[in-house]
Amino acid sequence: MTPQAAEPDRSTGTTPARDGRPVLPDVEAVAVVLITGASGTGKTTLLRTPAGPGVTVLSATCTEAGAAVDFTAARQLLPAQPRSGTQVVAADGGHRTVLHLYRRALGLLQFGPVRLVVEDAHWCDAATLRWLHYLLRRCTNRPLQVVLAVEPREHPALNTLFADILGTPRQLILDLDAPEHAGTEPRIDRLRRFLSRQPNLLRVAVATAVLQRTDAELVGALAGLPPQLAVARLSTLRNTGIVTGEADQPVPPAVAAELLGLLAADELQQLCRRAAFMLNDADAPVQRLAEVLLELRDLDEPWMLERLRDAATRAYRHDAPAAVRIWTRLLAAQPQSPDAAVDLAVALLNVDPTAALVHARQALPRSGDARTKARAVVCVGLAALVTGREPTAPYLLHDAMETLRRTAGSAPSLRDRIQLATVDSTLAANAVIGGTTYHTVRSRIGEAPASVAGASSTHRMLAVHALTTAYEGLEVQQAARYARLVLDRPVMGDSWAPLMATRVLLMTDNTAGALTAASRLALHHRDRGEPCAEAVARATWAHVLLEVGELDAAWTEATTALRLAGDGDWGAATWSAHTIISLINSSQARILAAEAGLEAIHERGSELPLWEQVQAVGATAHAAYWAQDYDRALQRLRVCGQVIEEAGVCSPAFSSWWLDEIILLGLRGRRSEAHLRLEQAEEQCRRWRTPRTAGMALLARASLTEQGAKVELLLGALAELEHSPAPLHQVKAQLMLGRTLTELGDRTAARRHLRDGMVLSNRLGYMMLAAHCRNVLSSAGGRTGTELAACGELSSSERAVARLAAGGATNRQISEELFISVRTVEFHLTNAYRRLGIRRRDALAGIVEPMPLTRRATAPSRRATAPPRPGGPASGSAAGPAEATS
Q1: What is the torsion angle, in degrees rounded to the nearest 10, for the CA atoms of residue 37, residue 42, residue 45 and residue 46?
Q2: Structural domain of 338
Q3: Are residues 175 and 224 in the same domain?
């Protein structure tokens, strides 16, 4: 056989080039070739190079539409044969089709080498990829070669099917963008050399890149050619890969940038200006026209600014960064325009609120009109909700509202009513997040939400009512109803309202709804390209995850929020995220890391909004407790209480600081102070009753009660907390109950609760709390070693068999109970012995909880206790002084 190309260099794994251009390797030398390269790099030319004599070449071109249909590409490679009575049916999951195609490929291989070429393989259907892998594995000694061509942006490195195919021993990855294949000549020079001999082709290519259209009349007019000539040149550009088949972007951005780089700056400006006029006359999509206008140095036509404003307004609905880019250009064209500065500030609110605050403040002195000034002040207020407490924001908003009322007169128009409602709701939002001004909010907003003009204002006022109702600690259902009204509506502009509604749902124990709302909000802002709003949503998401016992997930979301924030001063995101990470660090015995993470936040102290300030002070108290600095922990808890009380917040669900303080005061011998705090907390818990607050109140009462009455209180707390999303407080109750029962002499019952607490705290990832449980369990005579830890690694089937065996059931009885064979019982028991590190059946009773048979009258029941399966570290709310029962 005559080879098509030179023999590949096996020592380097590369393919030699002919005249500086890469060529496909010989079929017998390489089994799989993956070609990747952007348009214009010669990928199509390489694939269509004639093969050597005797080589059968079969090609297929994949499309996005065909990616969902099984064997689309395979049937292009091997078209169906017109044989009567034969039809390939994939009713068995495609197995028959695979065998049928395999036999046909073997038939072709009998006549000589075969090369299968798949273009745009990133759109290849999964069934064809599985068939190619199947074919390669069974034709290792036959002259078969599979060539896959993909776009760089669609590189299949993460696709397991591609990974399987590329796992073939004889494989080669050919990157046409790599320097060794592009040569020493820069790519733009190669493109210029390619087009230099055909000036008309160059003009058409540049015109297509500027217009991003393939209309022959439009492209020809910009290139100065008749439509007939433009059609022929466009066909040539398609064949060379410079122009693709994508309607929205026929010239890829990288290729377009290189084509435009061939022109001088002045020439490019003239071309873009002509293109802008042509697109405007042709009534082209405003987004495409805006992209051309953004390239112009001078926007000297009035219609240009109008089109850009229209494009920015449309882009803001789905692509915030694009809107920011357009408004930035508009402000550069009108640097003294306050409206342009305010429009840019509005677009930046969810992208970079710090920059939005700067532009809004710069617009204030230039705003002579009351309405423009009100818009600028609203931007200042909304940015302040994210960047942190802005002392002047409430005063600016109040002054703007009074000025706007005077301007609007006694019969304001609809536009003025909407703007007044926007200013009023922004003022109320700034007041409710700042602790010192919270007490003035209720007098402003009334007892129930009033009908206001404007969707965003309605959302914001509903969120303010939800927060104030929750802070007052009186109507759980009413607060939850307001929060759901906010979350049931689409997000309008800023995300402050749904974020506050999410916090209210968390306070009402509706953590499922809070998790759904936070995650949905984070994904919404991610899709819109708004990193700041996404970071704030992820920080809130992390807080909810921490409360419900998902420690790993909370860590992931908090670190993601910090990554999105980067160096930006996005207080609401960075403060919450740092606090959550510090809480997790302190609960996992990384005290120094926890304290280091809180230093920067502690310096700003009272500047933080109410929610973030309480979070940060509480995290400092927890870190101090685990560092065994109990006096400092009490001092920080006292500060936390003062901040909450000064804000007028009466809900016990806002923070668990009071439970930690009561228990720690009792342990430090300051019982009179603890009883005073307990009376206040119990009254608040009666008014704001949820399973979590009821269980916490019983825990606090039990910590100050004599041993004889403690058990009943702690059992009641456990019963309440089992119905609440507060797994950490369940551990605290188990630990306190286990210690109390040990002191009362009931060690058997104590071990059961201590083991449950130890396993649960291990599963949540609270290592310090788990150590407390382990120490108390050891003093109660319980097992704490590897056997107990390994018990959680049993599968559900192994655990069921082991529990029945621990209860005294025989293998036959277990098989009848679980409806499995005796051999299956023996198999599960053998695995259980190995995992638990035991050799005898009777050792199970000390490790797993016995389970009696339900299909016989009597069953031996040896009492033993063991934990449920501990999974990987999950999350929960911060462990703190409430564990200090050791």
Answers
A1: -60
A2: 189-394
A3: no
Cα angle 394-566-640, degrees, rounded to a multiple of 5: 50
β-strand pairing of 32-36 with 21-22 = unpaired
Q: How far apart are CA 559 and CA 541, in angstroms?
A: 12
Could you tell me if 261 and 202 are in contact, meaning their C-beta atoms sit under 8 angstroms apart?
no
Residue 132 within a domain: yes
Mean pLDDT over 694-711 rounds to: 89
Tokens 């009186």: give the residue: 474
> Tokens for 268?
């490019």
Distant-in-sequence, close-in-space partners of 195: CB < 8 Å, separation ≥ 6: 201, 202, 205, 262
CA 111, CA 55: separation in Å to the nearest integer?
A: 9
pLDDT at 332: 93
pLDDT tens-digit readout, 778-788: 777 765 544 44
The reply to whether 224 falls in a domain is yes
Residues 261 and 385 in one domain: yes
Q: Which residues contact 199 (CB under 8 A, 6 or more apart)?
A: none
Q: How many CB atoms lie within 10 A of CB 549?
A: 24
Check which CATH number belongs to the domain holding 254 and give it: 1.25.40.10
Q: Is the pLDDT of residue 662 over 70?
A: yes
pLDDT at 158 over 50: no
Q: Which residues are within 8 A (CB) of 3 and not within 5 positions of it... i.e. 6 or more apart?
A: 26, 28, 29, 52
Three-state SS at 115: strand
pLDDT mean across residues, the chain = 81
Residues 6+ apart with CB under 8 A from 80: 88
Shared domain check, 273 and 167: no
Out of 138, 164, 182, pick the residue that ends a domain: 182
Closest CA to 97 of 86, 113, 112: 86
Q: How confident is the model at residue 538 (pLDDT cuts 50, 70, 90)?
A: very high
- 201 plus 174 within the same structural domain: no
Quick count: other Cβ atoms within 10 Å of Cβ 157?
11
3-state secondary structure at position 492: coil
- Using the 8-state DSSP alphabet, how is residue 759 labeled? H
Same domain assignment for residues 242 and 277: yes
Find the CATH number of the domain harbouring 27: 3.40.50.300
**249 lies in the same domain as 177:** no
Tell me the backbone φ, ψ of residue 117, rounded to 5 degrees. -110, 125
Q: Are residues 201 and 77 in the same domain?
A: no
Tell me if 362 is assigned to some domain.
Answer: yes
Beta bridge partners of 673: none
Q: Is residue 251 assigned to a domain?
A: yes
| Contact assessment for residue 347 and residue 323, using Cβ atoms and an 8 Å cutoff | yes
CA dihedral 261→266→271→272, nearest 10 degrees, is 80
pLDDT of residue 790: 44
What b/e sequence results for 736-750 when a residue is b if at least 16 CB atoms lie within 10 Å of its CB, and e otherwise? bbbbbbbeeeebebb
Give this prediction's pTM: 0.69
pLDDT tens-digit readout, 442-476: 667 767 676 666 678 888 889 999 998 999 898 99
What is the per-residue pLDDT for 754? 85
Same domain, 112 and 224: no
How many angstroms separate the Cα of 830 from the Cα of each of 656, 696, 805, 841? 46, 43, 12, 10
Choose the final residue of a domain: 182, 207, 234: 182
Q: Closest by alpha carbon to 357, among 340, 341, 368, 374? A: 341
